[in-house]
Amino acid sequence: MRALEKLGLFKQQVTLLNPEPLGLRINVFIQVSLEKQVEDALLRFEQAISERPEVMECYLMTGDADYLLRVVMPDMQTLERFIVDHLTKIPGISNIRSSFALKQVRYKTALPLPSSGLTLADPDDVATDWR
Asked: Which among 5, 12, 49, 89 is placed 20 to 30 Å from 111, CA to CA?
């Protein structure tokens, strides 16, 4: 671990909490499509989503939807309020589709590092805007 730290590979250190005892029982995956995939629309959406604490992950995607969000919620009423009061208010959204996780089969945060040692990427090829 110290060697990884010296190489500057730590993004941050956190403690992972169990969401269920905290009342966060619902994992929802939300696909969002935008009217236009232009830079200002993408940035506006990303800024708005970055301010929402219930959004655990947000990915810019290829395929049918422009973004995939993972949000955690205590109940359906809170999800409805999030969608109606926040998500639908973001300018430029054309479609919202939600899917509920029935069961978490696997969740991990450890990266699949090779057991034979690390080979670091060229720093010029690595994105530095970790979010």
From this structure: 49
